[in-house]
Amino acid sequence: MNSKFSFKIYSTTKDLPSDWDSLAINNIFLSKDYLTVLEVAVPKNMTCHFIGLFLDEELVGLALSQYIDLSDVHSFGERDHCLKTKVREIVFKKFSSNVLVMGNNMLTGQNGCCFSEKLLASAGMVLLEKAAEELKLTFRKRKIKIHLTIFKDFSESEIENFSIPEFDSYYKFTTQPNMIFQIRESWNTFDDYILDKSKKYRDQYKRARKKADEISKKKLSLEEITIYKSRIYQLYMNVAKNAPFNTFYLPENHFVLFKQSLQDNFLFYGYFIGEELIGFNTLIKNGSDIDTYFLGYDEKYQREKMLYLNMLYDMIGYSINKGYRRIIFARTALEIKSSVGAKPVEMYGLMKHSNPAINLLVSKTFSYFEPKIEWQQRNPFKN
User: Fold this and answer.
1) Can you say whether the dihedral through the CA atoms of 142, 148, 153, 159 is positive or negative?
2) Which of 119, 209, 296, 365 falls 20 to 30 Å from 86 in CA-CA distance?
3) Which residues touch 345 (CB under 8 Å, ≥6 apart)?
4) Helix H segments across the chain?
5) Does domain 179-344 have CATH number 3.30.565.10?
6) For 301-332, what is each residue's pLDDT tens digit?
7) Mean per-residue pLDDT for 107-116?
8) Is CATH 3.30.428.10 the classification given to domain 5-175+347-369?
9) Which one is predicted more confidently, 313 or 86?
C-alpha cells in the first residue's frame, strides 16, 4: 500500500477535520451531526472513536469505532433463564466482554466507513486494521484489554475486500440478515402497495387496522418527546429486555438528544389510547433510504391491538408517500417483517480474538453464542 496513506484517531467530534462531511455526504450515519449526537447520547457501556484516513494531507476515508464493555449487560436477554444461557453469560463475560467494533453496533448495514475514489476499499480496510491495533494499545494503557475485534455488517460483495493477507487470522461470520423493503416504482401511494398484496395479506392488513381503530398516532415534537421521556424509556426497555441478544441499553435522554440534533431527519411517532402513550417508533431519513431506528411498546396493547404490525404498515405508508426507495428494517422480528414485504439480505462480519489459542476456537464456538432464530420467509404479494 502507498506509504503516503495514514490514519488519525479522534476521541471527540470537535476535533474532526473541517471537510469531514464532504466525504460523509451519502450517509447521514457518518455525518458530523449524527456522530456528535452519538457522542453525547451513547450507551454508558460504549466509547466511540472517529477515524480519518489520509493521502498525504487529503482526507480520503472516514470510519467509526465503538468499544463496548459487555460485563454489565445481560447480553442474552432477560426472558431466557435456562442453564445454557447462564453458562454462555459467564464464559462470554470472562473471555469476550471487551469488544472493539469497527463500525456502528447500534445500526444494521454498512454505516461504519466510507472511502473516496482515491482509496481502494481493500487498502482502506488495511488502514482500519492498523487503526484497530492502535486503539487496542490506547485501551491497554487504560487497563482495558480488548478481547474481540469485529468488523461488522458488510454485503456479500463488500466482504470480498477482506480477502487479503492482513485479515487471514479473522473469522468470517454471518448472523441474522438485514431485512430490506424495496419500494416498487409502481407504488405512488400506500394504496398501490395494498392492491399488490394477495388476498390473504390484504385481509391481514384489514384485520390489523380494525384492531387498532381506537389508537391515535401522532408525530411528536422535541418538547413532547421531553415530556414523555420516562414513559418512552419504559416502553423501549420493555422491548429491549426481551431481545435474544443485547450489547447495550440506550440512556434515557437518547431520543431527546437525537431530536435536538437531527431535527427533521429524525421522526418520532407516538401511539396513544386516550392520553396514555402505549408505543412509539422512530425513523431516520438517510438519502433515498428510510432507516427504522428503536421502538417500544406496552406488551399488553401490542398483543391486543397488533401494534407492531400496524407500526410496520405506518412506516411503509410514510416511506411510499414521501417517495423513498428503500426501508432498512434491520434485524429482529424477521418473519413479521417479511410478511409486509421485506426481504432478507445476508450481512457478513469478521472477528478476531486477542488470545491466539482462543482465536483458533472462534469458528467452533461462535454458533454456541449466537442465538438461533428459526423463521419462515413470507411473500405477501400477488407476483
Assistant:
1) positive
2) 296
3) 155, 177, 178, 179, 180
4) 20-23, 32-40, 83-96, 121-141, 190-195, 199-211, 222-227, 229-240, 254-262, 299-305, 307-321, 334-339, 356-369
5) no
6) 999 999 999 999 999 999 999 999 999 999 88
7) 95
8) no
9) 313
